[in-house]
Amino acid sequence: MRRSILDNNQPGPDILSLPLLVIEDDEGLNRLIRKNLGREGLQVEGVGTGREALAALKDTPDILLLLDLVLPDMTGREILTELAAREIDVPFIIMTGHGDERVAVEMMKLGARDYIIKGTQFIEMLPNIIRRVFCEIGKERKLVAMDAALAQAVENWRATFNAIPDFVSVHDLERRLVRVNKALADHLGVRPEELIGKKCHDVLHNLALPWPTCPLDSALQTRQPATREVNDPHIGIPLQVTCSPMFDIQGELVGVVHVARDISEQKRAAEVIIQSREQYRELYDNAP
């Protein structure tokens, strides 16, 4: 049983197979290329002119081209120019009967995956060349997908970060703000970017030195989460502040996440409970 050109590679997400379009005006050579690559398990079609190629690519742009540099009606360069004008970005391998270093450089600059001279070993070389090109395209597409997923994850994180009603900020080892959520910036009446690089005690407490019982200091020193209640008239509301250390993949401390929650309602509720207890105690003490 004949093996596919992909069988020599370990299977993995970087290996893909695209259909191929052979654009070659020599009918015999076109047929031979298609027959040889078809034996390798590939889907191969063939055309003999530039116009036929452009018509085929209207419906199937996700394809690998084996493009003859000189055709009866168009040059390979003209086909590529027309594809660019149509905003069709398709991978291609240039085939030519005559090697020309200047043309080869030009084609590679235009994005050619390879530049092949149609010599005596040309047909035998094609499977390995196509295997390599498939691997390259697979890796590139995987990177594009990873970049898109990362960008989406960052956007999702940013949206979540800014949707949190608590005051959330990220601080470096020098207590400088490196990220601030919308809730904190809105409370301070500034844009988040205006706070970046400033010391937290300057921004939050209007102090030249850290807040005396700052949990951020404790988190930096102990490398453990720390929680404190902070009542600073400059802030205007009582806060429960939790600071959690951040570490890189080597386990090195790189910063602290600072989460401050408004506990005004809890404070008021606690005061109501205390007042109620005092009233009941007073009633009990004054009972006959």
Protein model, in words:
This protein folds into two domains: 20-152, Response regulator (Rossmann fold, 3-Layer(aba) Sandwich); 172-263, PAS domain (Beta-Lactamase, 2-Layer Sandwich). Helices cover 45% and strands 19% of the residues. The protein has helices spanning 27-39, 50-59, 76-85, 101-109, 122-163, 182-188, 192-195, 200-205, 215-222, 264-285; strands spanning 20-23, 44-47, 64-68, 92-96, 114-117, 167-171, 177-180, 226-230, 239-247, 253-262. A five-stranded parallel beta sheet has the order 2-1-3-4-5, sandwiched between helices. It has a five-stranded antiparallel beta sheet with strand order 7-6-10-9-8. Helix 2 packs parallel to helix 3. The N and C termini lie far apart (106 Å).
Which sequence of strands runs across the widest sheet? 2-1-3-4-5
Structural class: alpha/beta
Helix content: 40-55%
Domains counted in the coordinates: how many? 2
Task: Tell me the fraction of residues in β-strands, as a range.
Answer: 15-25%
What is the average of the pLDDT values? 86
List the helices and strands and how they pair.
Elements: E1 20-23, H1 27-39, E2 44-47, H2 50-59, E3 64-68, H3 76-85, E4 92-96, H4 101-109, E5 114-117, H5 122-163, E6 167-171, E7 177-180, H6 182-188, H7 192-195, H8 200-205, H9 215-222, E8 226-230, E9 239-247, E10 253-262, H10 264-285
Parallel strand pairs: 1-2, 1-3, 3-4, 4-5
Antiparallel strand pairs: 6-7, 6-10, 8-9, 9-10
